[in-house]
Amino acid sequence: MATHELRRPFKRPAISDQQRRREISLQRQAQNRRDAQHQARCLASTILTLQPAQYEPAEPDLQPQSETELIPELEIESQEQRRDLRDIDDVIQASRLKGVEARQWFAKQLMLPEWMIDVPERLNTDWYVFARPAGKRCFVVSSNGTTISRLRNGSMLHRFPSALPNGARTSKSSQSGQSYCILDCIFHEPDQTYYVIDMVCWAGMSLYECTTEFRFFWLNSKLVETGACDVPSSYHKFRFSTVPIYNCDQEGLNAAYTGPVPYVKDGLLFCNKHAHYQSGNTPLMLVWKDENCSQYVIDTDSKGQVPNKQQVVLELLFDGKLATSDDPPVIFGCLNEDFIQKTGLQAGNLLRFAISDGGLSFVDGKLEKADLHYLGKPNRARAFADSYSKVIFQYTVRHSSLRIEHIYASMSLSSEQGNKISDLDMAG
């Protein structure tokens, strides 16, 4: 009976489809990789078989042909490669934007973790874990001799010189437009340090399509070499630092959960080793909290107090539906037209609601009904609605939370099942 009670909470089949979406995300990545490899093989094969005459200059009175005209059935770059380059160029260009345009663009670029509703399969073999620093999540972009950090809502945090590639105007720095760096960081106010939790681009090389395993290796091997982790100086205003990252086995999880770190913890981050860096919410990156590893497990209101009832922020769609920030969005309800006209609300507005006594109802793993009470609009600095996983995590924290014991138990169960499968393979 005790074992059954221990396993039940972290399965949560009635409220979560995270595992299915994790599998879909990994399958999509694998297909994109196969498509890119196929395009590269076709291009290499075609170039090798072209006759030298096809590359000779045309007669002066003839219109020269481009390479794409010589091989019209091929794309010179795969869609993934072009998207890769576009993402990098967009970030560099957007770092020069100002005001509303900058905030709107940068608000959509960070890879945002979902909240852990259930424990992933193969957590102890396919995932990393680390203690998340408390602070302000931001993109840090170094380019053209300066460094800029922008918050999750797109607003600028700092403009400063740094030791990152092309991050300061010094005699030693490269002024090439191709030398730039993009880091995913958390700015920790108490020690004025940027803790780097991911690397998107380094010295002009894109890491968007690299696995988490490679990005973390590159991050830990390259960042220290630049001097960015040194104490601040005239040409390096803020210190950068990596975070201790562990394989998410029993020992690694315990180290991340209980081990000392030089910053204030704000929960644990779990990262799938095979995931690529993608903007928006992803089930391949998960955040989890409890009272032992975070000061703020339950969301507080504008006064810093825990409200009596859970509050959620949803986006009003053109048809009156109330949606989360997910893609595709999850619908929590609908406002009638009379109420919308009376209050002067418009499509795209973010609205704050309280979950009333009726709570949330689920059928076959999907949200069926939410008892919502309208409170008004959230702070204007808010960039987007809550994600579905955040709402559900906050809901379960108030009712039946996913505790650290459940995560440990799930890992033990996975290990036992893996050992049984191995034993069967050996017997076969």
Characterise this structure.
With 428 residues, the protein is of the alpha+beta class. The protein has 2 domains: 1-48 and 81-289, 2-Layer Sandwich (D-amino Acid Aminotransferase, Chain A, domain 1), CATH 3.30.470.30; 311-386, no CATH class. Helices cover 32% and strands 26% of the residues. The chain has 11 helices and 17 strands. It has helices at residues 2-11, 18-49, 67-70, 79-94, 99-106, 123-126, 212-222, 250-258, 337-343, 388-399, 404-427; strands at residues 111-115, 127-133, 136-143, 146-151, 156-160, 181-188, 193-202, 205-206, 239-242, 246-247, 265-272, 280-288, 311-316, 321-323, 331-334, 350-363, 366-376. The strands form 3 sheets. Strands 3, 4, 5, 6, 7, 8 and 9 form a 7-stranded mixed sheet that branches. A 5-stranded mixed sheet has the order 1-12-11-2-10. Strands 15-14-13-16-17 form a 5-stranded antiparallel sheet, with no helix packed on it. Helix 1 packs across helix 11. The two termini are 33 Å apart. Keywords: Cytoplasm, Nucleus, RNA-binding, Transport.
